[in-house]
C-alpha cells in the first residue's frame, strides 16, 4: 500500500450556463457546459496508520474545519467503509480563489473522494463516488468523473463533451459573490429555452451565454468593468455565478499578450481548457 500521494484539484469553467427552469424545492435547473483547466490546487494525502482520523495541515481562511469540503468528503468515505481505515493527513496547496465560480471547493471534495478511494483501496465505482459527491455539492460529480461534460438538472446529469481545448485568460475581479444571492435575485433570467444536444456534443459554446451575467454586471461594477475590458479582445464570459470571468484564445501566446496588458491590480491566470481532468491524467500515470 502506498503511503502518500499528491494529486491535482483543477478548476472548472462553465463555458455557458443557461437557467432553464426551477425545481419544486426552489433549486434552479441548468444546462451548462463544463470544461476543466490545467490549473488548480494540489492536495497531498499521507496515511498515518498510527494516528486514526482525518487532519488538515492548514485551515482555509473563513472556512471552519468541519465545513471544509475536504474533511466532509473524507468523512463521507469513512461512513461508507465496512472496516476501520488508516488515518490520513491532508495538505492543501491552494491556488484557486474561493467562491469565484471556478469550483475549487467542489474540486477539492472530488480529489479527496477519488484520491482516498485509491489510497485506501476502497474500489468504489465512479458512480458511487459521484453519488457521494452530489451530497456535497452540485459540481462535485463532474470533477469525480473527470471528463468535460454537458450538465443538466443541477449540473449532475452529465453527457461527456469535447469542446475545443482553447487557452483562457481568467480574471478575478476584486469582489466576492454568494451563489445563493444570485439565484435569489428577482431579475434573474430563469426561462431560457432548453437546447437539444447530440450524444457527442462538441459544444460551439460561443453561441451561448451565462444567464447570471446581467444580474452580476448590475450588482458588481468590478465584474462589469473587467468584462468590458476583456470583451475588447473577443467574447468574455462569467463562470458559474462569478466573480471570475474568462476570455478564450486559440493559442497560449495570444492569451499571454492580453494577460500582460491587463489593468493593474487585477489578479487571475492563464490556463488551457482540457477535456480530461488533470486529476484523472495523474491517476492513469500512477496505475
Ligand atoms: C452555479 C454553479 C454552476 O456550476 O457553480 P458555482 O458558481 O458555485 O461555481 C453551481 O451549480 C452551484 O452549485 P452548488 O455549489 O451546489 O451551489 P451552492 O453554493 O451550494 O448553492 C447555494 C444556494 O444557491 C441556490 N442554488 C444553487 C444551485 C442551483 N442549481 N440552484 C439554486 O437555486 C440554492 O438556494 C443554494 O442553497
Ligand atoms: N476546500 C475548500 N476549498 C474552497 N472552498 C471551500 C472549501 N471547503 C469549503 N469551502 C467553501 O465553499 C465555498 C465555494 O467554494 P468554491 O467551490 O471554491 O467556489 P465556487 O462555488 O464559487 O466555484 C467557499 O466560499 C468556501 O466557503
Automatic annotation (TrEMBL):
ATP binds at residues 97-107. The active site is at 12, 139. It catalyses: 4-CDP-2-C-methyl-D-erythritol + ATP = 4-CDP-2-C-methyl-D-erythritol 2-phosphate + ADP + H(+). It comes from the Bacteria. The keyword Nucleotidyltransferase does not apply. Residues 68-146 form the GHMP kinase N-terminal domain. Residues 209-259 form the GHMP kinase C-terminal domain. Belongs to the GHMP kinase family. IspE subfamily. This is 4-diphosphocytidyl-2-C-methyl-D-erythritol kinase. It comes from Marinobacter suaedae. The gene is ispE.
